[in-house]
Amino acid sequence: MEQNTEEFAIINNYLCIRMPREVDHHGAAGIRESADRLILDDQVKNIVFDFENTTFMDSSGIGIIIGRYRKISCFGGKVYAINTNNRIRKLLKTSGMSAIIEILEENTSNE
To answer: How do beta strands 7-11 and 14-18 pair?
Structure first.
């Protein structure tokens, strides 16, 4: 069975967060706490949320992104979303997240 855990890495002032397969209220607190600790301890400037393995996200995922955006934007940082599938990309766009974060889309044909 696939593990439902997130991974964190800091690369050149970027906090990279590989989001878990399912982003819901059960795991949201752990992601928020770990991300906030790394933002403060390592003084990262930007955050990249990697949705490569994510197949489901509810409103708690939007809350994770908004909260980290608020923390990082105070210092002029930016938030990015990468490897979004059609479902995650649509959720980010319809929730208005595309107005505050950059959704980096790959040049792919229809998924």
So the answer is: antiparallel
